[in-house]
Task: structure prediction
Amino acid sequence: MLEGEELLQQYEDEIVPRSFRGGFVFLSYLVSCVGAALTLELLNRRTSRNGLSNHLILVSAAMAMGGISIWCMHFVGNHAIILGEGEPELRINYSSRYSALSFSYQ
Result:
């Protein structure tokens, strides 16, 4: 029997145990703080509602909040998850194509 099938039988009708890497959790928090600080700094630099530069600053602030503070925080945070006892068959894999696509829709 294959090892993947053994794991499937072992965790059938069970909750797969999980743990988290503390370094990635902290890094995820740090990334979200950097994105939030950048967003606030950009919003403070707006001087009025009109003007091309103010609209570009607003778009940049939206990208900083959505792209850095939220998307990057979740992406880094997901790398903190360890399923089972760290078996490679239970590892969460990410497709670079879908990751880039999900960033473009943020």
Remarks:
- The beta strands are 18-20, 81-83.
- The radius of gyration is 20 Å.
